[in-house]
Amino acid sequence: MSLPMFAAAGTEPGCPRPAGSPQATRPPAVKLTTPGLAARAAVALLGLGLTACAALLPRGGSDQPSPFDSFDAARLALERVVPMRTSLAELKALGFDPYASKNVTLIPYPAIVARLAPHPGVPLESLDAGVRECIAAQSACRAYAFQLGEQSRRRAGSFWLDLLNFSRTTYVTGWRFDGLVVMRGELVLFRNYGGEARIDRVEHQVNPLGPLQGAGDQIGNRLLN
Fold first, then answer.
1. β-pairing, 141-156 with 104-107?
2. Which residues of 175-192 are buried (b: 16+ CB within 10 A; e: fewer)?
3. Phi and psi angles of residue 203, each rounded to the nearest 5 degrees, phi first
4. What is residue 126's predicted lDDT score, i.e. its pLDDT?
5. Rounded to the nearest 10 degrees, how much is the dihedral formed by the CA atoms of 96, 101, 104, 107?
6. Alpha carbons 67 and 70: distance in angstroms, whole number
7. For the chain, where are the alpha helices, taking DSSP H only?
8. Is the distance from CB of 70 to CB of 175 less than 8 angstroms?
9. Which letter does DSSP use for residue 105 in this model?
10. pLDDT tens per residue across span 15-53
11. Cα–Cα dist 18/24, whole Å
């Protein structure tokens, strides 16, 4: 009878065969493939690779150390400075030390006049009282420009296009505060401020020649000059 052969052939893989039963022949393995499955897997792996490569794009930033962590914090502090009343010691206590603070520029008297009274035709009495006092004090007047803030730059987009210099996208965020304090001796005569409370911009750069863009620009400049 063929029952032993049937039992041997039907034995599950890994199960012992009855003694003396003939060797069971396995049917050829059937490769289960779905059309497009390999392509989809390749696309998925490529996406993962690009995501990992994006983390390799450069990042950078600049920080101008100060007691303030935002534009508004610096603005509120400087607004507490009262011209013709605030002293140098009080100015230092508010976080604006002309001598110890970093990123402070000393502006000489001629440049102060050019900045605060740029138009000679404007009558002197039309100027701020502190500015008039500074002009009268001449070389005894000093101005200090405080440059405060922080800025970060993060590149995004295709790693390979960025690496080969075809296309670069940079996100820039942060804040910038520019404060001006005019003094005569240890008395504040005038103060003002400006800057950017919230920096948030995107910079795009496209180079059709990719890594050869620099050489192409140099050749073009030589041909034009």
1. antiparallel
2. bbbebbbbbbeebbbbbe
3. -105, 125
4. 86
5. 70
6. 9
7. 3-9, 37-54, 71-79, 88-93, 109-116, 129-137, 159-163, 213-224
8. yes
9. E
10. 444 445 455 455 555 454 555 665 665 555 455 554 556
11. 11
Decide if 184 contacts 140 (C-beta within 8 A): yes
Tokens 């010691």 — which residue?
89
One-letter amino acid identity for 116?
A: L
Give, for 74, the enclosing helix (H) or strand (E): helix 71-79
DSSP 205: E
Q: Which amino acid is at 39?
A: A
Asked if residue 184 lies in contact with residue 144, where contact means CB atoms within 8 angstroms, the answer is no
Q: Cα(56)–Cα(62) distance, rounded to whole angstroms?
A: 20
Q: What's the CA gap between 116 and 128, in Å, rounded? A: 9
Burial class (CB in 10 A: 0-12, 13-18, 19+), 199: middle
Q: Which of 152, 155, 194 is nearest to 174 (CA)?
A: 152
